Amino acid sequence: MKGILSSLRQLRQYPTAVIGMIIIGLLLVVSIITPIIMPYSEAIRLWRGGELVWRYYPRNAAPAWQNWFTSTDLAASVIIDSSKGDIEPTFEQISADTREGFYSYEFDFPYDTFPPEVILFAAAKYASKQPFVELTWITPDGREIRAGEFSATANTSVRFDQDTRLQRRLERETGIKGITVIEGLFDDPSKEGIQVLQGTYRLDATALLFEPESTLDMTFVSYGKVHGLAGTDHQRRDLTVALLWGTPIAMAFGLLAAVFTTVTTMSIAAFGVWTGGWVDGTIQRITEVNAIIPLLPILIMVGTLYSRSIWLMLGLVIVLSIFGLQIKNYRAIFLQVKESPYIDAARAYGAGSNRIIFRYLIPRVLPLIIPAIVILVPGFVFLEASLAVLGLGDPVLPTWGKLINDANTQGALFNGYYYWILLPSALLMIAGLAFAMVGFALDRIFNPRLREV
Amino acid sequence: MAANTITGDFNINAEVDVESIEASARKARMQGIKRLVRYTLLKLVALVFTVAVGVYITIVVANMGGAVDKIRLGTIRESVALAATADPAFKTMNSEQRVAYINSRVDLEIKRYGLDRPFLVRSFEYLWDGMTLNFGFSQQLVSDSGSRLVRNILLERLPSTLLLFGSANLILFFVALFAGLSLSRRYGSMADKVVLALAPTSAAPAWFYGLFLILIFAAMLKVLPFGGMVSAPPPDNPVDYLLSLLNHMILPMAAWLISAIFLTAYNWRTFFLIYSSEDYVEMAKAKGLSDRMIERRYILRPTLPNIITSFALLLITLWTGAIIFETVFNWPGIGQLYYRAIGAFDTPVIVANVVLYAYLLALTVFVLDFVYALVDPRVRVGDGGRK
């Protein structure tokens, strides 16, 4: 054990290994923290939640930090929610039953592009008479535009860009044929063509509530073209959820598969060598059969025909790798170790087979299995991603590979949503490289023959 | 799995007896041939058995232990019912007659597909057919020429796979060989360190680099196609066709190379370095042989078995990766066919594909043993050295 620790200490001499260790450490920290701040059930609820969870989020928005690299600032989301206390409506009693409420949504718009969507969500409580709302749009240069009226129900959404009357009114006011509602609302009339007028906008909503018990909450959302740390996908879902939850899944899949396959192949090799005879021969033959069975095609087959659960895949990978080709390598080493004098000594004092295998044979190869495990990890991480990219990812869990698959099926590269592929790929690459770099250094430390050259 | 060992003990008899030497040499040669034949046969039997077990497992999995039959029964019933409604005679029958009519047609179809016998019996028939490359008819997929023979479907796809992977791997082999040699010559130089630092990038599979290359060259720069094999519609002029083909091959080949080249060059450079510290290399240097001569005769030759093994193992792992690689690049090859066959639950095509893979893997293993003997005279095929 001490030997292993001192060997691990040698890792410090390899700068790539140090970087790799730091990255692995960070990934492990993220893997531990993510399930704490966002439990498994919460992650699945968010990811499979659909429009109700994500309706205030923009569709296909790039990460917010993309604006740092471009000269034109893409619009960011503006969400003003009266139920959360972002604004405080004022009420005026008009008659015994009727109140008039004033909702004033004021926001800064310092961006160079138009928002893709502008929606006012209203949630009203009433017994029989629906509250009535009138909207006025006030631009930074002081123009007032009548922006429609509606009767609020328990769940109303007013999509400005679908209001054809407003569109025609804006066409008349701006004098530009075919201008869309959003362009008309944000257009700068003093400039030629259609350009964004930057400044402070206001949407005034005047609501008539006809019942004393009646209430009305309204949320104004001007959707952005950029959003948050990681952007959003075609279903408005925030990619951070998948990127965060992808970490523990990738780590668990890679590490569990690597550890289990290495430990089982090594134990089987030790057992075979120690028992010898037909047992050893059978193990050898099974290994050869196993080498001919193509792993990925079988996994794909099981994924399509039976179940796509990530844990079933993990189990299958381990089962199919139990008799992996690594057995040959370990066997060669055990054959040498078996002849060592200390094994004879153990036998002489009457040690049983199990004792010799687990106390004398296996500890001898422990230094070899540490680099073997670390080097195997990236392969399994990418295997999970490969299955997901083929559309065989876990049906409920969000993973890095599933993000790439979603992006591919939605034509992200074709439509220019590069972040959608780049972010999960970058994480995959970082994770894979970190383990590979550490594994390489460990290999050189534990195999001195490599260190010389 | 190879039984080849390096026999280092040469017994040179001190007494010179020409006739007995000749006789024993002849005897040894005869024994050598006998051993070679016996070894080859044994190896072949073992490999065929191995392939059979692998294929049988595939058949059982692909048929879901017989569950696919239920799906097929359902589709047969549906298609029979659909065909019956189109039949004018069917409209005049009463309901009892209709049920009897449909049932008799379904029974006929079941007999036609051989579904009336137990799965266990049929699975062994499938195995025999699979092993003898008699793949039968597909259930869903049709070849571009309209054939339902699985063999035709496979044969139609095989050339494009072989073209892409053959040329990519050939380039990979020679680039890695020359890179390895030149790196071993310039051991410790900047280039050597760069390749060493880049070797871990091979942890990512080829399709992964393919995504990046598509992103850069197809989506952003718009200079190369996103995927496919030729532009649509295919050019009539053979020269244009060839150019279009080459244009479509650039990205997949580049992805294939990037994913494997650094690790392979690094590994081979290490082999070369190990062998260039041997005594006989020093001896050759002392004799004043040129560097190229030393490289070719004293370093490359003994290293070749190692290199070929590592290349063959690389091929085996990369080979199965073709499924996803071809899917990402939309390359009309065997891998993409496999993916489609699975999506369509087309068992005969799935099994045929896996059989193809299994045979290819077995062939690689088998050929490897003989290649060893060819490139390294110290290796004697069939010499049971493990005793």
Percent of sequence in beta strands of chain A:
5-15%
For the record, the CATH class of the largest domain in chain B is Mainly Alpha
**Number of distinct beta strands of chain A:** 9
Topology order of chain B in helix (H) and strand (E) letters: HHHHHHHHHHHHH
Q: So how many helices of chain A? A: 17
Task: Please trace the helix and strand order of chain A, writing H or E for each element.
Answer: HHHHEEEEEEEHHEEHHHHHHHHHHH
What shape does the CA trace of chain A take? Answer: elongated
Named at the architecture level, the CATH assignment of the largest domain in chain A is Orthogonal Bundle
The CATH class designation of the largest domain in chain A is Mainly Alpha
Q: Can you identify the CATH superfamily of the largest domain in chain A?
A: MetI-like
Overall pLDDT score of chain A: 85
Helix content of chain B: over 70%
The major sheet of chain A is characterized as: 5 strands, antiparallel
Task: Tell me the CATH topology of the largest domain in chain A.
Answer: MetI-like fold
DSSP strand count of chain B = 0
Protein described:
- The complex is a heterodimer of chains A (453) and B (387).
- Chain A has 17 helices and 9 strands.
- Chain A is an alpha+beta fold and 453 residues long.
- Chain A folds into 2 domains: 2-47 and 238-450, MetI-like (MetI-like fold), CATH 1.10.3720; 73-222, Jelly Rolls (Sandwich).
- In chain A, helix 7 packs antiparallel against helix 8 (277-292), helix 13 (353-392) runs parallel beside helix 14 and helix 14 (400-409) packs antiparallel against helix 16.
- Chain A is elongated.
- Chain B has 387 residues and is an all-alpha fold.
- Chain B has 3 domains: 1-62; 72-124, no CATH class; 156-375, MetI-like (MetI-like fold, Orthogonal Bundle).
- In chain B, 74% of the residues lie in helices and 0% in strands.
- Chain B has helices at residues 18-62, 67-85, 88-92, 95-113, 119-131, 150-185, 190-198, 206-220, 238-276, 279-287, 291-329, 334-343, 347-375.
- Chain B is flat, with a radius of gyration of 28 Å.
- The model of chain B is unreliable at 1-14 and 382-387 (pLDDT under 50).
- Chains A and B meet through helix 8, helix 9, helix 13 and helix 16 of A and helix 1, helix 8, helix 9, helix 11 and helix 12 of B.
